[in-house]
Structures are given as C-alpha cells and as structure tokens.
Amino acid sequence: YYTGVIYEAILQGFAHNPKAGADGDESVSVGSVAGGGRYDGLVGMFDSKGKKVPCVGVSIGVERVFAIMESRALASNTKTRTTETEVYVVSAQKNLVEERMKICKELWDADIKTEQSYKRNPKALDQFQYCETNSIPIAIIIGGSEIEMGVVTLRIVGSREERTVQREKMVEEIKSVLANLN
C-alpha cells in the first residue's frame, strides 16, 4: 500500500525484558516504537470514482512506549508519585473531622495541595500508611491537645521527622519544608 517514503522509529540502546532477573534471560529489543509512510493509492481504492488522494500516516506503539517507561522506572529503584498531594491532614483521635476540614481549607486557600481521609474517624496508622503508599511528603497531625495549644505536628513522611508548629505559622512552615524537599 505504501507509495513513497516508509519510516520506522526504533529506540536505540534499550532492551526490555518483562521477566528480567527472574531466570537470568538476556533482555530483548522492543523493536519499533513508531512507524508510517506515504500511501497515495490506498484511499482511492475505496472511492467509487477512483480519486487519487495524497495521504501520509503515522502510528505510535503506545504499549511499547509504556513497557519501556515501566522498565526504566523499575530499574531506577525510585518510587513514582501518582498524586500531586503535598500535605495530608491526619487526625490522631476521633471526632476531629471539622478541625481537619478547617486545616484543609486554610491550606487550599494558600495553594497547597492538601488531602484528608473521607472517613469520619479514620485510624491514625491507616492515614500514615496512605501517606507512605502515595508518597505524600508532609503530614499535619492534629489531636485534642494540639487544638488546645494552638499548634499542629508537622511530620516529614519520608524521614518520619516531626516538629511542633504554631498554627498561625503552619502555612509558612509547610511552604518552607516543601521548598527544601524539592
């Protein structure tokens, strides 16, 4: 069907093996990741008047591109963040949903991407595991004593380092920590 130039894109210097390390097999090349060409006569075959319609086509092997990206991510041994959430508000005890919502609103108003559990009384451990699983860098922890003292506990999830921060300085401190983490 091709009537002119035919082209093919192959990723150089990369091989993919979905079972790498499992049985010691060598990696295999993924082959073409894109291709196409000119095919002036193809469309005319389907036209009752036999018109010649100039055409050029291209195709990208999305499945192969994703396989390469996945292999590279696995080889780099770094966790890929799947969320843009920067701060997760954790309640250390029951009946603090309204306080969590107030903190979320304050952080949203400061353009800080914030999330909280949508359960009324989530378990603290589940909330921390959610932060770790989703690579959320900061947790703001509140409890009854923190509310009484007008403070929050800021936790850097990756290192588990915690510090107490005055509530009115919370936004400033979070922005500072985020700048240092990036």
Concise summary:
The chain is of the alpha+beta class and 182 residues long.
Report what the structure shows:
With 182 residues, the chain is α+β, with helices and mostly antiparallel strands. The chain contains six helices and ten strands, in the order E-E-E-E-H-E-H-E-H-E-H-E-H-E-E-H. A five-stranded mixed β-sheet has the order 7-6-8-9-10, sandwiched between helices. A three-stranded antiparallel β-sheet has the order 1-4-5. Strands 2-3 form a two-stranded antiparallel sheet. It is elongated. It starts with 5 loop residues before the first strand and ends with a helix. Residues 21-26 have low confidence and may be disordered.
- Main β sheet profile: 5 strands, mixed
Determine the number of helices (DSSP H or I, runs of at least 4 residues).
6
Strand composition percent: 25-35%
pLDDT averaged residue by residue: 86
| Count of beta strands | 10
Instruction: State the distance separating the first and last CA atoms.
Output: 52 Å
One letter per element, helices H and strands E, the order comes to: EEEEHEHEHEHEHEEH
- Class derived from helix and strand content: alpha+beta
Write out the strand line-up for the largest beta sheet, numbering strands in chain order.
7-6-8-9-10
Residue share in helix: 25-40%
Low-confidence stretches: 21-26
C-alpha-based Rg, rounded: 27 Å
Shape: elongated
Organism: Magallana gigas (Pacific oyster)
InterPro entries: aa-tRNA-synth_II/BPL/LPL, Anticodon-bd, Anticodon-bd_dom_sf, HisRS_anticodon
GO biological process, one term: histidyl-tRNA aminoacylation
GO molecular function: ATP binding; histidine-tRNA ligase activity; RNA binding
